[in-house]
Amino acid sequence: MTRIKRGYIARRRRTKLRLFASSFRGAHSRLTRTMTQQRIRALVSAHRDRGKRKRDFRRLWITRINAVIHEMGVFYSYNKFIHNLYKKQLLLNRKILAQIALLNRSCLYTISNDIKK
C-alpha cells in the first residue's frame, strides 16, 4: 500500500489556533492541547466580561451622579432624583447625566431645581 499524506485542513486549524494564542505565556502558546483549552477559557471570559463591563459602567455613572447630587446640597437622594426625572418625563439616561455631572455641574443643578418644582 502506498503512503497517504495528510491534508492541510488540520494544519490550517492549528495555525489559526497558534495565531490566536501567540500572546499567551508558556505552554499556553506552544502546546496544541493547552492552546485549545486556553482559547476556550479566553472566549468564555470575554463573553462573561462584556456583560460585566456594562454593569460596571452603570455603577460608575450612578456613583458619579450620586456624588454630585450630595455635593450640591440637594436634599434628596439619587433614587428620588431619578424618580422625579421619570415623573417629569425628562428622559436622560445615566450615562448622559454622569457626563453632565462631571463637565457642567451647574446644568445638573438647574435640572434638579426644575424637577423639584
From TrEMBL:
<dbReference type="InterPro" id="IPR035566">
    <property type="entry name" value="Ribosomal_protein_bL20_C"/>
</dbReference>
<dbReference type="GO" id="GO:0005840">
    <property type="term" value="C:ribosome"/>
</dbReference>
<comment type="similarity">
    <text>Belongs to the bacterial ribosomal protein bL20 family.</text>
</comment>
<dbReference type="GO" id="GO:0009507">
    <property type="term" value="C:chloroplast"/>
</dbReference>
<dbReference type="InterPro" id="IPR005813">
    <property type="entry name" value="Ribosomal_bL20"/>
</dbReference>
<keyword id="KW-0150">Chloroplast</keyword>
<keyword id="KW-0699">rRNA-binding</keyword>
<keyword id="KW-0694">RNA-binding</keyword>
<dbReference type="GO" id="GO:0003735">
    <property type="term" value="F:structural constituent of ribosome"/>
</dbReference>
<dbReference type="GO" id="GO:0006412">
    <property type="term" value="P:translation"/>
</dbReference>
<comment type="function">
    <text>Binds directly to 23S ribosomal RNA and is necessary for the in vitro assembly process of the 50S ribosomal subunit. It is not involved in the protein synthesizing functions of that subunit.</text>
</comment>
<dbReference type="InterPro" id="IPR049946">
    <property type="entry name" value="RIBOSOMAL_L20_CS"/>
</dbReference>
<dbReference type="GO" id="GO:0019843">
    <property type="term" value="F:rRNA binding"/>
</dbReference>
<keyword id="KW-0689">Ribosomal protein</keyword>
<dbReference type="GO" id="GO:0000027">
    <property type="term" value="P:ribosomal large subunit assembly"/>
</dbReference>
<keyword id="KW-0687">Ribonucleoprotein</keyword>
<dbReference type="GO" id="GO:1990904">
    <property type="term" value="C:ribonucleoprotein complex"/>
</dbReference>
<keyword id="KW-0934">Plastid</keyword>
<dbReference type="Pfam" id="PF00453">
    <property type="entry name" value="Ribosomal_L20"/>
</dbReference>
<protein>
    <recommendedName>
        <fullName>Large ribosomal subunit protein bL20c</fullName>
    </recommendedName>
</protein>
